[in-house]
Amino acid sequence: xxxxxxxxxxxxxxxxxxxxxxxxxxxxxxxxxxxxxxxxxxxxxxxxxxxxxxxxxxxxxxxxxxxxxxxxxxxxxxxxxxxxxxxxxxxxxxxxxxxxxxxxxxxxxxxxxxxxxxxxxxxxxxxxxxxxxxxxxxxxxxxxxxxxxxxxxxxxxxxxxxxxxxxxxxxxxxxxxxxxxxxxxxxxxxxxxxxxxxxxxxxxxxxxxxxxxxxxxxxxxxxxxxxxxxxxxxxxxxxxxxxxxxxxxxxxxxxxxxxxxxxxxxxxxxxxxxxxxxxxxxxxxxxxxxxxxxxxxxxxxxxxxxxxxxxxxxxxxxxxxxxxxxxxxxxxxxxxxxxxxxxxxxxxxxxxxxxxxxxxxxxxxxxxxxxxxxxxxxxxxxxxxxxxxxxxxxxxxxxxxxxxxxxxxx
Length: 410
Ligand SMILES: Cc1cc2nc3c(=O)[nH]c(=O)nc-3n(C[C@H](O)[C@H](O)[C@H](O)COP(=O)(O)O)c2cc1C
Ligand code: SF4
Ligand code: SF4
Fold this sequence. Notes:
Blueprint: E1 15-17, H1 25-32, E2 39-42, E3 52-55, H2 59-63, E4 70-74, H3 85-98, E5 104-109, H4 121-135, E6 139-144, H5 147-156, H6 159-171, E7 178-183, H7 189-198, E8 203-207, E9 210-212, E10 227-231, H8 235-248, E11 256-257, H9 264-272, E12 277-280, H10 282-305, H11 311-314, H12 319-322, H13 326-342, H14 355-359, E13 365-368, E14 371-374, H15 383-387, H16 397-407
Parallel strand pairs: 1-2, 1-12, 2-5, 5-6, 6-7, 7-8, 11-12
Antiparallel strand pairs: 3-4, 4-10, 9-10, 13-14
The protein binds flavin mononucleotide and iron/sulfur cluster (SF4) (2 copies).
């Protein structure tokens, strides 16, 4: 079994059940604890418990890691049942008493809606941080991830300045780790990571979710509404780009990035791009405890099967790809082109459908006697290999791509 512990934060694994209906109040936190994640974030109080999760299009696609629509914040908004900071602290105490002691409890401090509403929100946030520290939270989380926070920033305040100011303010009143959740939309995410780091954040959580207008063509009859919280599996490559870019720039701040994790593959991608931890958000809401358990077990199996002994080995492994030299890029391009150019259609498997000739823009495929023949005009672009329905066009591209890394011991 691979060692999934995140030593820096003394966590049993890198999974953080993120703030959502699955972490609203002690009851739901304890239910989420059944998956035995590294940490759970108790959702903020006093702002309602609304927010369901709508999965559009093909509901199975999202769980298979294929691109799919996911929009949260649907359903009837209801009260969250926690009226005061004192009650919120009672939930913390109850969770700490009943939850396995090796699962960390991060507690959400403040809410961005406090800011445009005015009043002495800074004093409230400081008081929350002090009381939650005393109540036994293992870490405090500040959330600046909601796309609305960044979008609102342009109108009401400077987003990066807000992140810096609030992080520094909370850092100054607690000895606990301060986890700062950040948007990747409506702001410069790298700059926001740098500012949170400057202010003393213990970790940052770039989180890919957007404001969006998504709808089915028969929109009258289906759910989803324009606005915040659009995610889905397509979020992961975008958050991976932010993580990898930050690492390339030498920013070493630990991360708990999130967005689009509906199976172990996207969790692994976020970790391999250089994040130490990974959020489980909508998947816990719409997939439940069983789905969370499966993702953790699947990551473990993936690591065993691929020789990743621990999180140090897995974390950032794909940065070798992100940062590959121009020389490796050239070798890979040439290798793949050569593999495609050299492979000939297998006459035994060719059924003469002509799809390959249809996508060849170099006139390199002749159809003779209902069989495809590749000529010297082939440049090795690979289009025809993608459309061949029988495997008559087949090339060992995997070896061609891996070779430049393998020969350098990467
Ligand atoms: C229904 C729902 C409600 C959410 N509510 C909050 C919230 O109150 N505060 C917050 O910081 N993030 C909230 N989030 C965002 C998650 O904590 C998490 O960062 C995000 O869902 C990760 O992306 P993913 O859903 O694609 O995994 C919510 C997400 C969902 C799906
Ligand atoms: S690899 Fe590209 S150029 Fe070569 S035959 Fe196929 S489609 Fe044509
Ligand atoms: S697409 Fe495949 S099966 Fe169809 S003609 Fe081309 S090589 Fe033959």
